[in-house]
Structures are given as structure tokens and as C-alpha cells.
UniProtKB/TrEMBL annotation:
InterPro entries according to UniProt: 4pyrrol_Mease, 4pyrrol_Methylase_sf, 4pyrrole_Mease_sub1, 4pyrrole_Mease_sub2, rRNA_ssu_MeTfrase_I, RsmI_HTH
Organism superkingdom: Bacteria
Record's subcellular location: Cytoplasm
One Gene Ontology cellular component annotation held by this UniProt entry: cytoplasm
Gene name of the record: rsmI
Lineage: Bacteria, Pseudomonadati, Pseudomonadota, Alphaproteobacteria, Rhodobacterales
Protein name (record): Ribosomal RNA small subunit methyltransferase I
The organism of origin for this protein: Mangrovicoccus algicola
Length: 249
């Protein structure tokens, strides 16, 4: 059927792709990718041929012309598969402008869900998952990063942060300041790849570990949410009983 198909691709392990994603990559009339070479390589691994179909690059910033072409193809009744370099398109990756524009024009957009580093990290981190906040990449500059983190220090939801391995130590130093060095965290590295590791502990403990062995490869930091003010279920119960007593007086 005509429309844009947002295809999730693996975040490391080439086999982490869905059968439906391979079907769509094999049958779409036009292929679009953040990185055309990565997509081509992935299709080769899975024996999905191009068969003369065009493969175009799409980025949000240089995307005006590509977006217009994609919209035109869809209006002409064709299907377009779009993949970002890794994982789920639009998640700290290009595609948002394209989807917003197609939606504005009333053209069909379909998601072919699959791997996403944020969700994979949450699954394995061992921290609460009932509420979480995806923060993406922190600002690179120290002062900006500190205020960006400080804004989230009291939030109760688990926080998910993407960071380059060279900056993980600085990120933990900043977190010690904003969230406190006892806050539980998990550093999820190279998920689904051969050197996958998950370090779990307090900010202070992880800081010690990354100072000893600087992390390499792709990293997601998962940070526990702040404990509720006054903590303890008992405190909460007492507070509730007191409040009810005041009400009935
Ligand atoms: N769209 C991707 C997704 O669905 O997760 C994210 C793209 S973003 C440009 C790349 C960042 O995702 C990396 O810097 C890292 O923080 C995280 N990431 C991607 N693959 C990863 C992996 N295998 N293990 C750990 N983190 C990963």
C-alpha cells in the first residue's frame, strides 16, 4: 500500500530485525535512509536485493528536497521505506520533520517497530520501568549539561540518557552534583554486540569503575528517579492518616 514505512533496524546484532522489516525493505518502491551504505549492507546481510529500486539519503536538515520527493512518490501511489542508521527512526535520529510533513499532508505513515537502544537499556538496567523519561543526548558543554541535568534531579521517573563514551565520566561527575552520588544508575554499553556490558551501582560506584576502565563503544545511562520526598511507606501512611483526621474534625 502507498505510504511511508518507518523501519527499525538493529542496534548492533544484525539479526535483531523483524521479518516484517525485511519484507518492507524487499518490497518498497523507494528506499530512503539516513545512511544509504549502512542500509545497503544490512540488506545484503539478509539477502534482500535492491532490484533497481532507488535508494536516497534523507536527513532532517538537508531534507527539504528529499521530503518533497518522498511526498510526491506517495501521492503517486508508491511505498517508501525509511530507516535511520540504527534502531528506531526518529529516536535521537532524523525523520521527525518528514513524518510531521507527511502527516500534515494527510499521507499515510506506518511504523515497523523494532530495536531501540533506550528501551533495550531500560529492559536490562534493573531500575523501575513503570515511568520513564527519555532525555536523549545531553548538551556537550559543561555548564549547559549541568543545568539540563539539574532540571531533572527531582523527577520520580527513571531517566534514560544517550552519551558518547568519551563523555560518560563527565556525565557521572555532573550527575553526582545534581542527583547525588548515591543515586542508582546503570551504564549499558554495546547492547546486543559481543562486548555488551551492564554496570549497575550508585553514581559514585560507577564513577570509580569508569575511571579505572574508561568505557568504549555505544552507551546508554539509565538513572533511577528521585525517591519521593520524606521517603518511606510508613511516613506516607502517617501523613495520610493525619490528613484524614484533620478532614474529619
Ligand atoms: N535511533 C537509535 C535508537 O533507536 O536507539 C538511537 C540513535 S542515536 C544517534 C545513537 C545512540 O544510541 C548512541 O550514542 C548510544 O547512546 C545509543 N545506542 C545505539 N546503539 C547502542 C547499543 N548497541 N548499545 C548501547 N547504546 C546504543
Amino acid at each position: 500500500a502507498p505510504g511511508l514505512y518507518l523501519v527499525a533496524t538493529p542496534i548492533g546484532h544484525a539479526r535483531d530485525i523483524t521479518l516484517r522489516a525485511l519484507d518492507v525493505l524487499g518490497s518498497a518502491d523507494l528506499l530512503a535512509a539516513e545512511d544509504t551504505r549502512t542500509l545497503q549492507k544490512l540488506m545484503q546481510i539478509h539477502g534482500v536485493g535492491r532490484e533497481g529500486r532507488a535508494l536516497i539519503a534523507y536527513h532532517d536538515h538537508s531534507g527539504g528536497a528529499a521530503a518533497a520527493r518522498i511526498a510526491e512518490e506517495i501521492r503517486a501511489g508508491r511505498s517508501v521505506a525509511y530507516a535511520s542508521e540504527a534502531g528506531s527512526p526518529l529516536i535521537s535520529d532524523p525523520g521527525y520533520r518528514l513524518v510531521a510533513e507527511l502527516a500534515r499532508q494527510g499521507l499515510p505513515v506506518t511504523v515497523i517497530p523494532g530495536a531501540c537502544a533506550a528501551v533495550a537499556a531500560l529492559s536490562v538496567a534493573g531500575l523501575a520501568t513503570d515511568r520513564f523519561l527519555f532525555l536523549g543526548f545531553p548538551p556537550a558543554k559543561a555548564a549547559a549539561r549541568l543545568s539540563w541535568l539539574a532540571a531533572e534531579a527531582h523527577g520520580g521517573a527513571t531517566q534514560v540518557i544517550y552519551e558518547s563514551p568519551r563523555r560518560v565520566e563527565d556525565l557521572l561527575v555532573a550527575l553526582a552534583e545534581t542527583h547525588g552520588e548515591d543515586r542508582p544508575v546503570a551504564l549499558c554499553r554495546e547492547l546486543t554486540k559481543s562486548y555488551e556490558t551492564v554496570l549497575r551501582g550508585s553514581v559514585a560506584e560507577l564513577l570509580e569503575q569508569v575511571r579505572e576502565t574508561p568505557p568504549r563503544g555505544e552507551c546508554v545511562l539509565v538513572v533511577a528517579g528521585a525517591a519521593p520526598e520524606g521517603a518511606g511507606a510508613e511516613d506516607m501512611e502517617t501523613a495520610l492518616v493525619n490528613a484524614l483526621e484533620r478532614l474529619s474534625m
